[in-house]
Amino acid sequence: MSDILDPLRHRRQLVTDESAFGKDRFGQWAERFARFFGTPKFIVGQTVLVALWIGANGFLIVHELHGKAFDPYPFILLNLLFSTQAAYAAPLILLAQTRQADRDKAGGEADAHHREDVANRQTELIQQNTVITAATRANTEQIAEVHRHVTALTEHFGIDMGD
Fold it and tell me: Mean pLDDT in runs of 10 for the chain (163 residues)?
């Protein structure tokens, strides 16, 4: 892709997962995990699991198999599973947020670098335009001077130029 047609070329040169963030497999896994935690698929899946858990225990309790319920009310094992899930989820989500913040910072630095490059290029173009304008002005003055000389010569020799 041509640099002119690629508006994100300044970011692609400076921001890659490998160059800015390493190949940290655990960090990448944490990001996938944190992203999955925020999906409807996870929420629905967890809701179904909890409903099945409570339903299975309720069924065993209602059918007078209280001794066979694997997690009788108040569902202490289920609470332990939620606590364990939260204990692992929170640091993984924080790690994912930290990596995203690092990516955002690197992207911001790339944007700042790009803006600086654009400003420098604009300054160069303005300077080049100033030089071209001065050259055009000098050429215009020379053309006017040549025109005056040609007009003077044609008048001196009586030549009709068809003006």
Answer: 57 50 72 79 86 81 66 81 83 80 90 93 96 97 95 86 63
- H or E element in which residue 111 lies: helix 76-157
| Counted domains in the chain | 1
Vertex 17 angle, CA 5 and 38, to 5° = 100
* Structure tokens that stand for 115 in this block: 């803006």
What is the distance between the alpha carbons of residues 57 and 73, in angstroms, rounded to a whole number? 8
Q: Is residue 99 part of a domain?
A: yes
* Residue whose C-alpha is closest to residue 37's, from 83, 79, 88, 89: 89
In 3-161, beta strands by DSSP E: none
The answer to pTM > 0.90 is no
Residue 12 covered by a domain: no
Q: If we measure between CA atoms, which residue out of 108, 107, 93, 105 comes closest to residue 27? A: 93
Name the residue with tokens 């300044």.
10
Distance CA 140, CA 55 (A): 93
Domain hosting 90: range is: 17-157
